[in-house]
Design brief:
Elements (H helix, E strand, L loop, with lengths): L7 E7 L7 H12 L3 E7 L3 H11 L3 E4 L4 H7 L2 E2 L1 H6 L4 E4 L3 E4 L2 H12 L4 E7 L3 H10 L3 E8 L2 H5 L2 H7 L2 E6 L3 H5 L4 E4 L22 E4 L8 H8 L3 E3 L2 H16 L5 H12 L2
Parallel strand pairs: 1-2, 1-3, 4-6, 7-8, 7-10, 8-9, 10-11, 11-12
Antiparallel strand pairs: 3-5, 5-6
Helix pairs in contact: 1-12, 5-6, 5-11, 11-12
Length: about 280
């Protein structure tokens, strides 16, 4: 894509990013707000070189997705309060230094409010990456105990100090225990990419019990296999679109100081997914 002089660059860095609808959401928002900027998605294998290249090009900033949120935290010369707390960065602004923010926390809080999940005893968190860290912060004050299951129990254990800082009793458990635990909790949160493009389900559907809350951070498709199975079994469900849109709106506030039209962003997201 050729950029006009004066057009400012924002983008997404991750791997993979081919399924992302963030370019559609942000570019529609920029047009509505009269912002002369473009948003692109870059699938990168060397995150730090890509980040330095964007800064050298004079980009306004970027979003960061799997698997680079913790690497973005390490690369940042300044961190917001949410980024310092979580140890993960999903939004970067270039302003003399690499400024790291975590707008996922706002997206998680918004989503849990929509779901109506609060004052619960136990939750199962699937995944232990940067998004999972934002979920832990969002669960503070809502859940007493959280089981953290990922394919690497050592990675799950690295989140435990964060749990202590936000006042949640957490246990790192083996990935093989996830379905057994799913049958015993009040809330299940999928913070893994399992279910993206409709591929796979992160727990045994038979473990989903009626009345359980199920929050899947995957947004493509809007109704993942996990959400469809959970709905069939009488669970209260929410997908990742509200979180995606809220964190995107917060990123635009950081980059351009605007209050974007979140209803427009949501409509654009739904259209981009063909739902």
């Amino acid at each position: 894509m050729r950029l006009d002089s004066g057009t400012r660059l924002t983008c997404l860095l991750g791997h993979p990013v081919g399924h992302s609808i963030s370019p559609a959401i942000h570019n529609a928002s920029y047009r509505e707000a009269g912002i002369n900027s473009v948003y692109l998605a870059f699938d990168v294998s060397d995150f730090r070189r890509a980040l330095d290249g964007l800064e050298a090009l004079g980009a306004v900033g970027c979003n960061v997705t799997i698997p680079y949120k913790e690497a973005a935290w390490e690369a940042s010369g300044w961190l917001s309060q949410e980024a310092r707390l979580t140890g993960a960065v999903n939004t970067v602004k270039f302003d003399g230094t690499i400024m790291g923010y975590n707008t996922d926390v706002s997206g998680v809080l918004h989503s849990l409010d929509l779901l109506g999940a609060g004052s619960l005893d136990r939750a199962l968190l699937l995944g232990a990456g940067g998004a999972a860290r934002s979920v832990i912060v969002g669960l503070s004050g809502r859940v007493s105990e959280v089981y953290i299951a990922s394919r690497s129990i050592e990675r799950s254990r690295r989140i435990l100090p964060l749990c202590g800082r936000v006042g949640i009793d957490c246990r790192a458990v083996r990935w093989e225990e996830r379905s057994e635990l799913a049958a015993r909790v009040d809330l299940i949160v999928n913070a893994t990419p399992v279910g993206t493009l409709g591929r796979g389900i992160p727990v045994d559907p038979a473990s989903l019990r009626e009345g359980c809350y199920v929050f899947d951070l995957v947004y493509n498709p809007p109704r993942t296999p996990l959400l469809m199975e959970a709905a069939r079994r009488g669970c209260r469900t929410l997908g990742g679109l509200p979180m995606l849109v809220r964190q995107a709106a917060e990123a635009e506030r950081i980059w351009f100081g605007i209050s974007p039209d979140e209803e427009l962003m949501m409509r654009t997201a739904i259209e981009a997914l063909g739902d």
